[in-house]
Amino acid sequence: MAVEGSSGPFPFRRLTEGFSLRGVGLHSGRDCALTVEPCDGGPLLRHEGAEMPLSRLGLVGTGRGSDYVFPDGHRVRTCEHVLSALVGLGAWGVRMTVEGPEMPALDGCAQRMAECVMDHSEPCGLGPEPFALAVPLRVGDESRFVAAFPSSRFCVTCVVRYESPLIGTQMLDLALEPGAYLEQVARARTFAMEAELEALRARGMALGGSLDNAVLVGSGGIRAAGGLRWPDEFVRHKALDLIGDLAAVGRPLCAHVVAVRAGHELHLRLAERLRALSGGRRGA
To answer: What pTM value is reported for the model?
Structure first.
């Protein structure tokens, strides 16, 4: 069911033409490509000849990213940044075709993807029917959790706390309104601790990471191309991830989501709970 959205809390956009992006995968280091096309009834994900709605794909968030798993077991890794740009800008009617094992890392955030969406879309008054959460939900424990509360719009509150004094404790509140996504989170880059880098690469992860697409935090300071974009860029990136991970619900969400020291695994556990309550995906 489609609903009017241009004047409400969800400013929908419609792709006017497709576009493609190519680059290395953040973890695999392999060449990957993404083609995004307009599609009635999206969002859909296509990979290795299979195509399914996001809301019907399996979810795995244990590998430093969010993976979507097809019924035969093959998966597309590291989808969160691309999906964050689409959700953040209200572009739901899309088909994403991926070549390679994961989404291209691009700029390590959502800026380039968001720019492409804005350049190839226009505002529209119709979009998927939002899912209005009626009861509070929570996953996690006392120290790390994600909770969702009924709300008339989509808001996120993120809190991070790291032992490194270069990050410390940071918090961000964001209501997803026109312009807010582009201005406040789209440019926030992924980050890693320098002490973890060798172990990550030994596990076949972060092979495509560089200072061109990530922020590196070490005992000697913060290394990032051009320096930090905000003093609290770290929590802004967590908000970017959270917005992208909740795209797994398959339609806009009316809820206030609070994430405290969370990550992809908890984000996706909440998305699975929301899927179950929403009764599955509804077409645009």
So the answer is: 0.94
- For 40-54, write each residue's pLDDT tens digit: 988 999 999 999 999
Whether residue 9 is predicted with pLDDT greater than 80 in this model: the reply is no
pLDDT digits (tens, 9 = 90+) for 78-128: 999 999 999 999 999 999 999 999 999 999 999 999 999 999 999 998 889
Tokens encoding 20: 């493609």
100 and 32 in contact (C-beta within 8 Å)?
yes
What's the per-residue H, E or C state across 138-188?
Answer: EEECCCCEEEEEECCCEEEEEEEECCCCCCCEEEEEEECCCCHHHHHCCCC
Based on the residue annotation, tell me whether 267 is a catalytic residue of this protein.
no
Question: Which one is catalytic: 47, 81, 237, 264?
Answer: 264
In terms of DSSP bridges, do strands 94-99 and 121-123 run parallel, antiparallel, or are they unpaired?
A: unpaired
How far is the C-alpha of 134 from the C-alpha of 246, rounded, in Å? Answer: 17
Residue 192's region, left for phi above 0, alpha for psi from -120 to 50, else beta, is beta
